[in-house]
Design a protein that fits this description.
The protein has three domains: about 140 residues; about 130 residues, no CATH class; about 130 residues. Helices cover about 65% and strands about 0% of the residues. About 0% of the residues have low confidence.
Length: about 425
């Protein structure tokens, strides 16, 4: 254990020569001095001293033995010195973080900037990762935080649009990857409300006039990751009046990439109970089967809405939507427009219908759905799930198009009425 007087002497020595450690003797003596301080002094003793000088010294020594000394020092000795310097750096981070995180960060950035260490990418990556491992900045819920987030997003937007431009702002394109990493790490540590700010800005970029698929691909994964990290509580807090219209515009887009991205983001913002993987492809939800669902791509989005908001209004709205989709598909099929894709749509319609029956335990609706499913199984199995990438029919096979193979509007309405009318009757108080 080192005494306070001895520690003061050593720290004064470090402060005195931290800017002039050019001689080989000074480097060796300085490293031994810092190693002695980090091993002998307690955190309580060291924390009273400003970390700037000792951090600058150890980083310069670490850099010297890691990158420079290989030319005039044996490999074994250099590795030992380099390992010792890194251990001292880690020990100092453990001592000063989190009490003096800001001072440590400023010292590290100053060394990288003044000594042009950014030219040594691996070394910079190593020291910054060590810093991030011990120091996580908690973003306060203030206006200043929102301002910083918006400025970083603005720089990122300029960088991704500049990388595809032929003129102007080209220097910003070089920052694209670094800003993307910055945003991804920032997403891990900001609040739910701040995540919604990021989602809102990126969604607004997607629907901008003149936005290209190439630019969307540059930030689409970051947008999707942000939506994944967001913790959904109440929908009124997540699907705000600013975000919801943007998502609907994305889903309705004629661009496949924008529509797919809109669906994926919406799914993450709806999926409170991790049901998403249950709806990766259309399938029949049989009456007596048990799924690991709590009561709580377009098919997946519809299914998530159905399970997350299990009420009569949503069920009726979705059935209405499905019936309209079926009608439009049948009209297109008559004109021989993408006949094979119509099979996918009909399979998706019956899959969602079966899910609604399963959620609400709609007996009458289930009977009708099963009737349609069995008719299809006998005469047109290609209209039932699972979806196939290619449909092969025998030469003599007849593609039936009977009315019994499709849902009839009044039958679906009756199934819903029977289900929810029965529920209302059961909930009415009994007369005494």
């Amino acid at each position: 254990m080192i005494t306070d007087e001895e520690l003061k002497t050593k720290m004064d020595y470090i402060l005195e020569i931290c800017t002039s450690i050019d001689l080989q003797y000074d480097k060796k003596k300085m490293l031994n001095n810092i190693a002695n301080v980090t091993k002998s002094a307690s955190q309580k003793q060291l924390i009273v001293y400003e970390p700037n000088a000792i951090i600058i010294c150890i980083l310069k020594l670490f850099f010297y033995y890691n990158e420079i000394a290989s030319q005039n020092m044996c490999k074994w000795k250099r590795r030992r010195k380099c390992r010792l310097a890194k251990e001292c750096y880690i020990n100092l981070l453990q001592v000063y973080i989190p009490e003096k995180s800001k001072e440590i960060l400023e010292a590290v950035i100053n060394v990288i900037y003044e000594d042009k260490l950014w030219e040594f990418e691996t070394f910079c990556f190593e020291i910054m990762c060590s810093l991030l491992e011990y120091d996580v900045y908690n973003w306060p819920d203030t206006h200043e935080t929102v301002t910083v987030i918006e400025r970083i997003l603005n720089l990122f937007y300029i960088s991704i649009t500049s990388s595809h431009a032929t003129v102007n702002f080209m220097p910003y394109a070089t920052f694209k990857k670094g800003l993307e990493v910055c945003i991804i790490n920032m997403v891990k540590h900001v609040s739910n409300d701040h995540l919604l700010i990021i989602i809102q800005h990126m969604c607004s970029w997607v629907v901008e006039k003149g936005m290209t698929d190439e630019i969307i691909l540059d930030f689409g994964s970051t947008l999707e990751y942000t939506a994944y990290v967001h913790e959904v509580t109440l929908y009124e807090k997540t699907l705000t009046p600013k975000i919801f219209p943007l998502l609907m515009e994305m889903i309705a887009s004629t661009s496949k990439i924008i529509s797919l991205l809109g669906n994926r983001v919406t799914q993450y913002l709806l999926d409170r109970e991790e049901n998403k993987m249950n709806f990766d492809t259309p399938k029949i939800f049989f009456e007596d089967i048990q799924f690991d669902l709590t009561i709580e791509a377009t098919y997946c989005t519809i299914c998530l809405i159905a399970v997350e908001v299990p009420c009569g209004f949503i069920a009726a709205a979705l059935v209405c939507l499905l019936m309209n989709v079926q009608d439009v598909t049948l009209k297109q099929t008559k004109h021989h427009v993408e006949v094979s894709k119509s099979y996918h749509i009909h399979a998706t319609v019956i899959a969602v219908m079966s899910l609604l029956c399963w959620i609400h335990k709609a007996k009458a609706f289930y009977e009708y759905m099963n009737k349609v499913m069995m008719e299809r199984a006998q005469w047109a199995p290609h209209l039932n799930p699972p979806i196939q990438s290619q449909y092969n029919f025998a030469a003599h096979h007849i593609l039936w198009n009977k009315p019994d193979l499709f849902f009839v509007d009044w039958e679906a309405r009756y199934g819903l009425w029977k289900c929810f009318r029965l529920h209302e009757t059961e909930e009415e108080p009994q007369d005494t």
